[in-house]
Specification:
The complex is a heterodimer of chains A (70) and B (322). Chain A contains three helices and three strands; from the N terminus they run H-H-H-E-E-E. Chain A is an alpha+beta fold. Chain A has a single domain, classed as Atp Synthase Epsilon Chain, Chain: I, CATH 1.10.1620. The longest helix of chain A has 14 residues. The N terminus of chain A is likely disordered. In chain B, strand 2, helix 5 and strand 3 form a beta-alpha-beta unit. Chain B has a five-stranded mixed beta sheet with strand order 3-2-1-4-5, sandwiched between helices. Chain B is elongated, with a radius of gyration of 29 Å. Strand 1 of chain A pairs antiparallel with strand 3 of chain B. Chain B: This is ATP synthase subunit gamma, mitochondrial. Chain B: It holds the Pfam family ATP-synt. Chain B: InterPro entries: ATP_synth_F1_gsu, ATP_synth_F1_gsu_CS.
């Protein structure tokens, strides 16, 4: 069923398996009908702030979030 | 005589201001005590103010305990359900905490908010011990820190070894998508042979066990597979979804990390709420004890001042007569 490529298309596009399965899950959640759809989509909200450290100093944190900052 | 008793009472109040209770009121009672003999003892106003503030603190900590209890109930169910996510992985790939690899990355999970007892300190202590354990010639260990509290503690002596620090994780209720995006970030930014996740596993409302979960990178899994054991039997399984074994291992490894991290974050959140519950509970109990002692002091002071007044009046009256 899968093509006989050396790597699946998503791997060669730079995605990890985690990203791939998240996108698939999102597709499945979007197939639901209301009101279950909005319930399921609230389970997908992402918000955290990550900062990379170099030489013992944190850089400016980048916020990865679905909700817009106000 | 009453003065001496009150002074003794004041000295007994000092040990109650232990780190457990969160009273920040200065011991003004005790400093007032050093008044020379003959003066009226501590005014009742000060004691009354202190009693009012301690009562407020007791109410606040009791409310915090209730809030923590309700949050705990909600999240405990999810944590126990999420245990089923990584159990198949352990059944398939085994758990190898004693694996010896070159690059270790320690993921320390802690809370952002305080007032939750000692769980963050134990996590940091275990992480530091793990670092010492896995140190050696041409081995390196790095930290990835989740949560403000562990960051503050690890900054003090391991600043150079921190790779990433993540905060504000609990702004929205925890869900798998968020943790998996986080896991993805970690995987993309950090090179590792073995990831060790340090968190507090939730046993019950009063007991939290610090645990280390180990996730190996696909290459490390290959190496371990050669030495036999659970991993060696991986070849006897027929696996769909990938052409080569290394590809399958890579997918599995990433997914395993994501699931284990999800469970770890949930368990740590549970432990945080449980620890906060017990910390707030002991705090309100301490505040109650303090309130009792203050009430005794207050009554004693009040009675002493009334007695002194009576004595003055009576001696004054008898002086007039005589």
């Amino acid at each position: 069923m899968a093509s006989n490529a050396a790597a699946p298309f998503w791997r060669s596009a730079g995605m990890t398996y985690i990203t791939y399965s998240n996108i698939c899950a999102n597709l499945v959640r979007n197939c639901l009908k209301e009101p279950y759809k909005t319930e399921a989509l609230t389970r997908e909200k992402v918000h955290f702030s990550v900062s990379k450290w170099t030489e013992g100093k944190p850089e400016k944190p980048t916020i990865r979030s679905d909700t817009p900052e106000d | 005589m009453a003065m001496a008793a009150v002074r003794r009472e004041g000295r007994r109040l000092a040990p109650l201001i232990s780190p457990q209770s969160i009273t920040a009121v200065r011991p003004s009672v005790i400093s007032q005590e050093q008044a020379p003999l003959g003066l009226r003892s501590i005014s009742t106003q000060i004691v009354r103010n202190r009693m009012k503030s301690v009562k407020n603190i007791q109410k606040i900590t009791k409310a915090m305990k209730m809030v923590a209890a309700s949050k705990l109930r909600a999240i405990q169910v999810r944590a126990e359900n999420s245990r089923g996510l990584w159990q198949p992985f352990t059944a398939l790939l085994g758990d190898t905490p004693s694996v010896d690899v070159k690059k270790n990355v320690i993921v320390t999970i802690s809370s952002d908010k305080g007032l939750c007892g000692g769980i963050n300190s134990t996590s940091v202590k275990i992480s530091k011990a793990l670092k010492k354990l896995t140190a050696g010639p041409d081995k390196e260990t790095k930290y990835v820190v989740l949560g403000e509290k562990a960051k503050a503690q690890l900054i003090r002596d391991s600043k150079k070894d921190i790779e990433l620090s993540i905060t504000e994780l609990q702004k929205n209720p925890l869900n798998y998508t968020q943790v998996s995006v986080l896991a993805d970030d970690i995987l993309k930014n950090v090179e590792y042979d073995a990831l060790r996740i340090v968190f507090n596993k939730f046993q019950s409302v009063v007991s939290f066990l610090p645990t280390v979960a180990t996730v190996l990178s696909p290459e490390a899994v290959e190496k371990e597979a050669e030495s036999g054991g659970k991993l060696g039997e991986l070849d006897s399984y027929e696996i769909e979804g990938g052409e080569t074994k290394s590809e399958v291992l890579q997918n599995l490894g990433e997914f395993q990390f994501s699931c284990v991290l999800f469970n770890a974050v949930l368990e740590n959140a549970c432990s945080e709420q449980g620890a906060r519950m017990s910390a707030m509970d002991s705090s309100s109990r301490n505040a109650g004890d303090m309130l009792d002692r203050l009430t005794l002091t207050y009554n004693r002071t009040r009675q002493a001042s009334i007695t002194t007044e009576l004595i003055e009046i009576i001696s004054g009256a008898s002086a007039l007569e005589g």
